Amino acid sequence: MASASDTLAGLMPRIAAGDRDALRQLYDATSAKLFGVCLRILADREEAEDVLQEVYVTIWRRADRFDAARASVMTWIATIARNRAIDRLRARGPMARAEPVEELEIADENQVSAETSLFAADDRAQLAACMGELDERTRGVIRTAFFDGVTYDALAQRLGAPLGTVKSWIRRGLAKLRGCLER
Questions:
Q1: Which of 9, 120, 136, 148 is deepest in the core (most CB within 10 A)?
Q2: Domain boundaries for CATH 1.10.1740.10 within the chain
Q3: Residue 52: what pLDDT?
């Protein structure tokens, strides 16, 4: 029996070939999760719906660029959704979601969160374990930047740290995560 990830991967060549039914199947299987990503970043249902539509138009146009060797379908399309939502958020202005870091809600590491639900069940445990290997500051900035959609500039302002320093923390943290996930 094919896994959900394999099923989604099988749809991508069909979508690249212009198969609308394959796009509909992908939409049915993934739209709730992608809508959650958009809504979490934008905190506005109407904008999240607009961005979700843009996401599927992008998938339709770029399905031929999907590379299963680099990422799962869910990771690839979630990245598209995240980036589109951040682009929309940036269009509002750089401080649209700026809140002091002290006021940010820290997610319980053991709780299944929106971001971990994007990954297949076997990837979820590995990602949580790898995130647990990061120091608290690095884990926090990665979660805030990638899962909450806060720009590096806004994050640096929240933390009162230089932009280059925040980027270095994230870059080093992502390198550690990549190394851990490849084990």
A1: 148
A2: 1-92
A3: 94
The C-alpha angle 125, 166, 140, rounded to 5 degrees, equals: 35
Task: Convert the pLDDT of each residue in 26-41 to its tens digit.
Answer: 999 999 999 988 988 8
Domain 1-92: top CATH class = mainly alpha
Instruction: State which fold the 102-183 domain adopts.
Output: Arc Repressor Mutant, subunit A (1.10.10)
**Each residue's pLDDT tens digit, 125-183:** 677 788 888 899 988 888 888 777 788 888 888 889 998 998 899 889 888 888 887 77
pTM of this structure: 0.56
Boundaries of CATH 1.10.10.10 in the chain?
Answer: 102-183
Judge whether 166 and 124 are in contact, CB under 8 Å.
no
As a whole number of angstroms, the distance between CA 177 and CA 183 comes to 10
